[in-house]
Amino acid sequence: MATLTPDAPPPSPSPVPSSGFFLRWRLRLGLGAVVLVILILWAIRAGRSSSAPPAAGRSVPVVVTAARKGDMNVNLTGLGTVTPLTTVTVHSRVDGELMRVAFTEGQMVHQGDLLAQIDPRPFQVQLMQAEGQLAKDQAALKNARMDLDRFQSLVKQGILAQQQLDAQTSTVVQAEGAIKSDESQVESAKLNLVYSRITAPISGRVGLRLVDLGNMVHASDANGLAVISAVQPITVIFTIPADNIQQVLAQNRKTGKLMVEAWDRDMTSRLAVGTLAAIDNQADVGTGTVRLRALFANEDMALFPNQFVNAKLLVDTLRDMIIVPSAAVQRSPQATFVYVAKADNTVELRPVVVQATDGDQTCLSRGLAPGEKVVVDGLDKLRPGSKVVPTDAEGQGTANGTKAKG
């Protein structure tokens, strides 16, 4: 008979969070959001206050310099490449074994200096053979002429026929032709002997050696023995905008020789001073530029072939202009202006007219007088009428004559 067992009690339900629990979490989240919003607003206000101009009562430290009156050069600047006037690849003109290399890589050589020697013995043998053949044919010519003289005498006496005389005359002419051929062979052998000594065709700097000692060289070799570049004088080929070419042509006709300066890539160091040598006969329609060539003596070897430089072409000189640092000139959609530091240590916004700019110098046609102080540093914090603490650009004192603190 089956035994009856009581049913297992049902599982107790998990506790349900009370409404107070949810209320506390909502309060915490709300407080966190409020704090986050406050922090964001505070950060925005702090950023605005840091970028805002100083208060009207606070003086701004600035650096000033005096506008001066003087002459200013107007230059056109273009990227250029140092290019030798002449570059020659030295080739052998005869075939043979390279017996001697008489130059050092990178050496300066003069025209006519010995560079290499090819084995001359085969050409000496050829010369001896040509001279021997010449001597043989000269003897034959002498004998033919003597026979011609005898034949002429016999023909006059009626002993010999005219036909034999004519044949002997032809023999003499043939012998004379053989002599000329022999003489050309002698000269050719002498020339090959000269060509076995390879000399510098121009003066300049020798590059790296392209053939080592002991190799067979041929007149048909593509690479040659070495490359010589003429570096004294040397040229720079550079470009300027085609819009400025008329100004260059006008100045070139007026003065004859325009000055060109070669500067390094960063425009920090002047390498050489030369003159404009040539202007190309057409503009490049793709770039809108014109190529020019400048000539430099390069006595100190400051310019190196294929070096990239900045070329500054002097096209004009403006006389008696007001000159200020380019950093002082500011531009807005309405005008170009500078900040002028006045005697009461406030600044005035002064509209100006720019005539030309050359690097860190700008000349003005009007708007400023010589001696007036313009602000060159600290401009981003200025407004018209702002109070300033001016220090001159050399750091020696203030604009009103007092010593700068510190």
- Helix coverage percent of residues? 25-40%
**Gap between N and C termini:** 113 Å
Radius of gyration, Cα only, in angstroms? 46 Å
Which secondary-structure class do the elements indicate? alpha+beta
From the 3D structure, determine the CATH topology of the largest domain. Elongation Factor Tu (Ef-tu), domain 3
CATH class of the largest domain: Mainly Beta
The proportion of strand residues reads 25-35%
Explain how this protein is built.
Residues 1-9 and 396-406 have low confidence and may be disordered. This protein has four domains: 60-74 and 319-392, conserved putative lor/sdh protein from methanococcus maripaludis s2 fold (Beta Barrel), CATH 2.40.420.20; 77-85 and 229-318, Elongation Factor Tu (Ef-tu), domain 3 (Beta Barrel), CATH 2.40.30; 95-118 and 199-211, no CATH class; 120-195, Helix hairpin bin (Helix Hairpins), CATH 1.10.287. It is built from four helices and 22 strands. The strands form four sheets. Strands 1, 16, 17, 18, 21 and 22 form a six-stranded mixed beta sheet that branches. The chain has a six-stranded antiparallel β-barrel with strand order 2-11-14-13-12-15. Strands 3-10-8-5 form a four-stranded antiparallel beta sheet, with no helix packed on it. It is elongated, with a radius of gyration of 46 Å. It has 406 residues and is α+β, with helices and mostly antiparallel strands. A hairpin with a 4-residue loop joins strand 16 and strand 17 (336-341).
